[in-house]
Structure formats: structure tokens, C-alpha cells
């Protein structure tokens, strides 16, 4: 279900009272863009390591351990450290699938794993997060997202609906705020739209569109291969950045006149990207509607935080960066477009033999 901006009626009649002048905003946006681009050219291709524990009975679990393959198909040096009451049962099976090492085996934990701690050894100081999914016998799940600085978690008892909702909400917020390509697309839209009412309409159109495809793709109603979708998402950023330049040059286009149309069209593609992340995580069988709704709400909350942060930070930073607004807008647009063009080439090259 999409979320929307809610503005008091009085504010809609005087938008300039809330937004800084276009030139002021642009100067601040230049600094913000450089801060975003300084994160590096790695965009939001969601490839964390993945641990899945499927409970078979009170003490036995099936383990699926997947880590991204390094160049030359080398394996990431990360291993699972189970509690002392745990032992492997039978042989393990491993293979390279979709540029990732997958290993499957069974374990037996005397007394079960509830309230026991599991550690991921070998990712400390690295750049790989670990998504953890535990499927219990009663159909409930536990989800964790581990970062290199804290590579451990405790297996908990079956959660209530509130815990599921909070877990997926936080995953949605983390995903959008960590998705540099999605954020650059929104930043390009902010450069293109300075009027508050048009900005609200544009962001709402983007929200509605990616909410539609997020739901449809996650539930399996739409199936598209991930690499081409990611390439077109990068291309959408190039397109909007170019439209900002065209608008500066006085070359009117439908994007400048009706940016919500473009935001809606490309929002459908970005929704497929969000769905790819959610499919990696998975949905709990007993709370699919709650998890899907709260992940989407988390994405929207993160997006609103970003938009609000851009407007506030740009206003403050513009007082320090005294640069002509036209030059700033051009530099920011070329910066966004150049990085997105690199992503496009990189992503296309990844799936073309």
C-alpha cells in the first residue's frame, strides 16, 4: 500500500514559504551530490551473504549458507560458528549458483537453538552484510540483518505480529537509505522540480508506481530478470539528469512540464528493484500482508527522510557554498548522469556474454 505526502491546505497555496529559492537550493544540492557520489560507484545491487535455517524438528535444522563469489570464483572467507551444543548431520552439498557459493547441510542442536547465539566469522572489516532468515516449525520466521561490525545474533522464540512489522519496516528504511542509485534518481527529480505542489505530485507518483510493482513482483505476479532491470534503473537516472540539463538550456520537454509522468513510469522499474531485495530476504508465511506492507512503508519513510534531509541540508549548506546557481545545477546534473552512465555500462556488460 503506498504512502503519500500529507500537506495542510494552507501550505499548498504558498509553497515558496517552505522551500528555499531555486538558486539557494541548487548550491546546497551540489555539496550533497558530491557527498553521495563520494560513497563510491557501487550502486544498489543487493548481494549480501544469506543464511537460512529451516527447522525440521525440535533439534534439527536444514542450513542454507550463501556468500557472493569473489573474482575467479573464489569463496568469501566467512564461516558460521554455531553454539557448542550443535553438530553437523550427514554430508554437505556446495555449488556456485548465480555468482554465489551455496552450501547446504543439516545440523542437530541438543535442546534446540532458541536463545542460542550464532556468529558469522570472517566478515569483520569487510563490506558484506548478512541476511539471516530462520523458519520455525510453527510457520513463523525470524529475520536479521548483520553488519561486519556486529556479525552475531541470538535465535529467538516465535515473534508476534508487532515484531514482524518492526523488522520489515526497518529493513525497508535501511534498503532505501543504502540504495545510492534510488537516492540519486530522487535527487535528480528534486533538481528538476522546485515548486512544492509539483514536487509533492512527482514524489507521490513515484511512490504509487514503485509500490505497485513491488507488490506484484514480490507476490510472483510479474517476473523479470534482475540484471536488465538494474541496468534500466541506472539508465533512468541518466535520462532524468539529461532532462535537467535540457531544462536549463530552454529545451522544454514533457519531463519538465509534467515530471510526475516520468516519475511514475520509471517508478515502476524502481519497484522491481525493491522487490529484488525483498525476494532475497523472503516473506514470513504466516504474515505476508503485514511484512509486505511494512517493508513498503519503511521504503517510503526512508524516502521521505531523504527528501526532507536534502531540503534542510541544502538550505544550510548553501550559506557556505556561494557558487552561481546555474553552474551548480549543471555540475550536479553532469555528476549524477556520469555516475549513472557508468552503472549502466557496468550492468549491461554483466549480463551480455
TrEMBL record:
Supply the Pfam families for this chain.
HupE_UreJ_2 (PF13795)
**Residue ranges of the TM segments:** 166-192, 199-222, 228-246, 258-278, 290-319, 331-352
InterPro entries assigned: Put_HupE_UreJ (IPR032809)
Write the lineage as a comma-separated list: Bacteria, Pseudomonadati, Pseudomonadota, Gammaproteobacteria, Cellvibrionales
**Name assigned to this protein:** HupE / UreJ protein
Keywords assigned by UniProt, alphabetized: Membrane, Transmembrane, Transmembrane helix
Superkingdom of the organism of origin: Bacteria
Amino acid at each position: 500500500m503506498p504512502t503519500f505526502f500529507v500537506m495542510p491546505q494552507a501550505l499548498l497555496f504558498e509553497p515558496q514559504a517552505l522551500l528555499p529559492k531555486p538558486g539557494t537550493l541548487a548550491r546546497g544540492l551540489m555539496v550533497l551530490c558530491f557527498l553521495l557520489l563520494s560513497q563510491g560507484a557501487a550502486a544498489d545491487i543487493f548481494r549480501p551473504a544469506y543464511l537460512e535455517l529451516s527447522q525440521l524438528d525440535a533439534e534439527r535444522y536444514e542450513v542454507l549458507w550463501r556468500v557472493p563469489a569473489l573474482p575467479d570464483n573464489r569463496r568469501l572467507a566467512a564461516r558460521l560458528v554455531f553454539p557448542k551444543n550443535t553438530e553437523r548431520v550427514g554430508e554437505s552439498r556446495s555449488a556456485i549458483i548465480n555468482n554465489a557459493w551455496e552450501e547446504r547441510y543439516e545440523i542437530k542442536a541438543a535442546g534446540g537453538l532458541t536463545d542460542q547465539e550464532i556468529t558469522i566469522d570472517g566478515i569483520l572489516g569487510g563490506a558484506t552484510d548478512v541476511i539471516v532468515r530462520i523458519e520455525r516449525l510453527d510457520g513463523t520466521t525470524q529475520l536479521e540483518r548483520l553488519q561486519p561490525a556486529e556479525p552475531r545474533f541470538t535465535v529467538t522464540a516465535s515473534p508476534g505480529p508487532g515484531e514482524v512489522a518492526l523488522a520489515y519496516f526497518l529493513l525497508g528504511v535501511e534498503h532505501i537509505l543504502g540504495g545510492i542509485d534510488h537516492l540519486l534518481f530522487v535527487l535528480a527529480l528534486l533538481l528538476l522540480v522546485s515548486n512544492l505542489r509539483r514536487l509533492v505530485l512527482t514524489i507521490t507518483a513515484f511512490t504509487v508506481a514503485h509500490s505497485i510493482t513491488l507488490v506484484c513482483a514480490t507476490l510472483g505476479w510479474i517476473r523479470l530478470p534482475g540484471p536488465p532491470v538494474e541496468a534500466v534503473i541506472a539508465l533512468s537516472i541518466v535520462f532524468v539528469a539529461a532532462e535537467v540539463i535540457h531544462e536549463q538550456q530552454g529545451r522544454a520537454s514533457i519531463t519538465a512540464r509534467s515530471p510526475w509522468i516520468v516519475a511514475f513510469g520509471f517508478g515502476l522499474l524502481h519497484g522491481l528493484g525493491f522487490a529484488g531485495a525483498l525476494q532475497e530476504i523472503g516473506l514470513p508465511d504466516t504474515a505476508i500482508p503485514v511484512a509486505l506492507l511494512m517493508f513498503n512503508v519503511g521504503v517510503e519513510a526512508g524516502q521521505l527522510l531523504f527528501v526532507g534531509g536534502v531540503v534542510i541540508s541544502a538550505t544550510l549548506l548553501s550559506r557556505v557554498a556561494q557558487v552561481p546557481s546555474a553552474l551548480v545545477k549543471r555540475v550536479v546534473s553532469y555528476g549524477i548522469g556520469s555516475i549513472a552512465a557508468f552503472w549502466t555500462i557496468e550492468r549491461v556488460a554483466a549480463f551480455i556474454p
